[in-house]
Design brief:
6 copies of one chain form a homohexamer.
Chain A (H helix, E strand, L loop, with lengths): L6 H15 L5 H6 L4 E8 L3 E2 L3 H11 L4 E4 L6 E2 L4 E8 H31 L6 E3 L9 H10 L13 E3 L1 H7 L2 H11 L6 E5 L2 H10 L3 E5 L3 H10 L5 E5 L7 H5 L5 E3 L2 H4 L6 E7 L1
Parallel strand pairs in A: 6-11, 7-8, 8-9, 9-10, 10-11
Antiparallel strand pairs in A: 1-5, 1-12, 2-4, 3-5
Helix pairs in contact in A: 1-3, 3-4, 4-5, 7-8
């Protein structure tokens, strides 16, 4: 496993990224007839949480199996602007071909880890935990969920196969929340809890009565969420969801919910600024 | 071609996105034994430039070939909050499985198109054009470059195979800018121009003397770029690059450069807010 | 979804089966220069539970997209010897090429469904349910789990990603059952219950004290399992496992356990006898 | 070649088996935060013919390339209950992830080899040989044919591309057995013999007259097969087929046929009982 | 089956050819913003045997599924310069993208069919037949073997899996021709004849004595081959091989051999001249 | 990069070539039960330019990773008949399986390199250069373009994505050459020159007036091409194309054109004669 994925699945993503960048080789390097062995370093240009370094190194290795790598930090470490992150040595042409796909991945995953870390820090001291969502980049879900964990937040289900979460559309199709929860509990399989989405205290109470194991409070006010926290019986967990944005998370956490799910962790994380510098020729 | 890709290459991306979301099917829908045919609409929740609608529809079609689609707008249209974007009709289980992967793609591509449109509008009336970069999401380059075009900006080269751009590392490896440009012009092939990166007016003048067809002005002040614009001979094109951020683009454009390349178009575009609503059961 | 799989994933299995059977075409049909359109039927040669008919039809369709199909029964139906199952019409060469891969799949899946149905019937009237295991044919897990459901039994987890089940090797690695359960409950994620394997009543009681949600009773006597059923608190579920063979399942079910997991459903199911007969030329 | 397949083709099967078992990693091992290096052994729980050990080892190697293996026996060896088969050492998490896919393959292939060995032993001393059929598990044909050879039986053709065998449906399509054999001999290509299926002594004599090189006696009585053996000229080979079951093979062999083809070798072989035990932590 | 291949295998070759030609689309058509529907025809520019038209059409269909096709001739037809071969109608951009990959295939396969036809005509009236070899283009073997058949010659084995042919290196490894033939006959399987290569009359006689079913006469003089033809017993077939070139084939055929294998059919066939003309806009 | 391709892309081609030659292993080697380690050499049987040796070696390595290789020459070297090219050592069965696919590739690529070398020599002393075309074997474009470079000629664009070349069909669709060139120059992107095809001096002059950067002179007489060379302004390049055949290239080069594109380099190159000889057993 590398960055939360099997080697084979990760390689498949990286080879695709390499192929789309240089299907015919590097026209510039070939025109210049460059060669020789060099080393280079990844350099932090701002403060962020490092994530994806092994995957970035793997890009170089796929292009030039004789490349050598030295990581200076592990994923999860908070770096400051100016810190060197790791070194690569190998053939100049291979390194120039690897640099951009490697950076594209490293900057994105570190951006997500950094966003997750900040969300986690914002609610520090409360009993709530930050969750991610299924709002990930097509094809990169496992890597982005790994970045969320690297930043200290938790993963919600990996996808539709990975847990029961009854939403408004399901309830509408079944006819009632009570019937939906009851049907899910009968069929869920013995290893899964049943979570149901509600949009009001009234629905929340119906969910409790129906025997839901977890309740997702969707777009509810902090006041209503605080009341739901008070009313819930032991063992029932609460997830706040809907428009959860950094900056407003602490107030939500203080309502007493157990989880806050934040789509922006993955769908809108900014790439952090990292450069790759050739050190020597 | 759909969204700038062959059907086969697009399907490969979409099938990967579907597989990572539901490798074993949808546990909730199966537990609830949902079925029947429904229709749903994509709904704009804020103002943005639409991009990727055909790819989003294709997700539904891959999961349920009997799905039907009606687009209400074409890619490139600016939508307002509250506008319906298009309708899908099909099997409920298939629609619930398709919704999230489709939205993940549509929100991201529309986010990039919107960012590109805003950058383009910022420099309206000048002679400069906005370019993208190679700072794209691994695996999604063709789609993201399509989104850039949809927003009205231009694509820089698609990758390393697709044009000659001599950067600082190449120059260091060759020994001098003059030698690098001269070697590139000799070997580039007859169909390609030669672009070279410079970091100062001094290097800029060396590039001109060496016969560069295009010069990338990297992290230079607006004053220096304005001077370069004045000094350049007919037929030599200038590209401003390095930390080009929305908000400061107009001042750059007014220096007289021909192109401004903006990495943030793709590496940090925010997903726009779109929902998918089931209309009927 | 066809037989519990996405069309694309199923096709991948079927195309592999076709390719291994006729990488160069059908040497006999080519030597005989056969052609023309025919129809044929699948025929039950013994009593069994039908499973996999749509996948079998799909083999014909992949080889000859203009083939036509009529199913006479749906998966799950118990057929008697001599009953016709469904008809295919198409090009003779294509039908002769499709017949064997289609039968190989249909006979295996029907064999599993039949075994599952018999196990389910054996415990009819008790409160126990039959579960499958991960002892499936490499590459065919989703199809075989579908066959288990078709026969009326339940699926245990689809694989290691799909639920928490602490076994003896995990406990040995952690150091104690109590610590293992406690660690799993802390980290499992909010949607999953925690199941733990025990081999004795003593361990069973430790599992209860540690807060396990489910307990797998491995190779325990019926007496001990009956006692465990009496001792368990409300809400804790029991799974009997280890050498569970058809013929002895009813006695196990009568101990009061909730689930009996039976590896033989998938790892040793006999293919049922089905033939394919050309009706007309 | 490993177990009758190229490394690449085998890996493709094994990676599929791994992916279907743990698309998201091992939720239990991750919840328990297990690590460290261990060793384990495969252990025979009954008497059987070993088959597939190198493929089983390859599962571990694909998941953890730094795993180490020691086989204690070679494929084809008859093991007794209690014998250790081979040892694996590596990362605990990787070993727990590899164990089940490796066992699933090893138990199935050893089951087939054991069945083939028993069939072979049943006819020992006669001049007949046991053949397999095309009734194999979809996707596993090369491995299962290898297991048949490992058990001492012979492979019939690998598939439709691999030899000429005229069956009843071909004859019906051509119009007569004589015409079918004659057409096949004209077109078969110079390297292939022509085999034809007959269902009676009358058809058998027609096959001889038509010049068939081999005759498949389908569902004929032992008396008729004995007569056919007497009547056939030098150089014509006979294959008994149709409902050939272990226990009745010796009587068939004594009719004087050259080959007995047994579908049950592959389509209904029981998985043998093998366990994997962690030895040390 | 299309051109001797399954649809899926052919598509895989064609999609690769398309992808290598236009990984990013057609820069010229996009720069010119061309659109609209047109039709075009394939036109013979010299006399040749047509081969591969359905595969050529399939290129257009893969790029634009709404394309329409009309073949004017079937594969195997001898065309004269100036004849129209078939028409395609569809989107202009798709047609311009399809034209070159389609022509590349059509010209090559027709070149092989033409070469095979001429070799066949050269030996007309003799009892010999022309065979191809394994000297085919990597990846295109099935198509090229189909082209050989289209031209009226026969296929030798499809590859190493497809027949027994003992060559000098095998004999050297075994120790003697007699031992090699005897071992092959014992192990070959019941459906295969045994062919052995000899380089002299002495070896030829050894092969006969050893019981070879076919003998490949490698680089032997026409006199020696004529003598071998006289000496061989009934039922033993002879293949002339080694430097067999168009122009000298008739003399070889007149020695009485049954087959002449000609590597140049596939390894050095000239592409025939075909153009694709847009008829209308 | 090996022979102008990424390792992964090359392996994909080679594995396909291996699979089509031996999907079920080597029936002859298996029947003979051959084993042991041997070495063999590639041997030049005529004079040619070597190309593809590393790819040929890679075939052996894919089949037997423990194979060892020693190249005696590098690609681009002109070899004489009788020279040994390189040695391979490894398992006999693996070597016999690798030999033919390796030779098929090596003979074809060397044939192309040799053809390119001869074309280049034919115009030695002129200022013209030889270009290849898109008339390559489906699936082998990158390798064949590499062979062209190895022979000393230049590559034209790699495909439709790789440069702007306006041909007659484009002009017809746009309406006029002038409009087509003007539209292309507006949209081409900043890194690409614009080439346009003309068929007469009149069109040539229109192309110059329209501002074309390069002009392809299609099927024009040497006289007209000489006149075009005189008339063209500085900086405009000329490419002669259409029926350019070895033997007539020097006269074309003497017209003063810059490039001569020769489809026959790739579409009709003869495979050179190379054998593989086992040295020792």
């Amino acid at each position: 496993m590398v960055c939360g994925m099997s080697e084979q699945a990760l390689d498949s993503i990286l080879l695709q990224a390499i192929a789309e960048d240089s299907p015919y080789g590097d026209r510039t390097v070939e025109a210049l007839a460059l060669g020789g062995t060099v080393s280079g370093v990844f350099l932090a240009k701002e403060e962020f949480v490092l994530c994806g370094l092994q995957a970035a190194f793997r890009v170089f290795e796929l292009i030039d199996p004789s490349s050598a790598f030295v990581p200076f930090f592990e994923d999860g470490k908070t770096l400051k602007a100016g810190e060197r992150i790791g070194r690569v040595a190998g053939d100049l042409g291979a390194i120039l071909k690897s640099e951009r796909p490697a950076l594209n991945l490293l900057q994105r995953l570190s951006g997500i880890a950094t966003t997750a870390r900040r969300a986690t820090e914002e609610i520090e001291g409360t009993t709530a935990r930050i969750l991610d969502t299924r709002k990930t980049t097509p094809g990169l879900r496992l890597l982005e969920k790994y970045a969320v964990r690297t930043g200290g937040a938790l993963n919600h289900r990996m996808g539709l196969s990975d847990g029961i979460l009854i939403k408004d559309n399901h309830i509408a199709a079944v006819g009632s929340l009570t019937e939906a929860v009851s049907r899910a509990k009968a069929n869920a399989g013995h290893l899964w809890r049943v979570e149901v989405e509600v949009g009001s205290l009234e629905e929340f109470r119906e969910a409790l009565a129906a025997g839901a194991d977890l309740v997702l409070l969707d777009n509810m006010s902090n006041e209503d969420m605080a009341r739901a926290s008070l009313e819930r019986p032991n063992g029932v967990l609460l997830e706040a969801s809907g428009g959860m944005k950094p900056g407003s998370l602490r107030a939500v956490a203080q309502t007493g919910v157990d989880f806050i799910s934040v789509g922006a962790l993955t769908h809108s994380a900014r790439a952090v600024d990292i450069s790759f510098e050739i050190e020597s020729h």
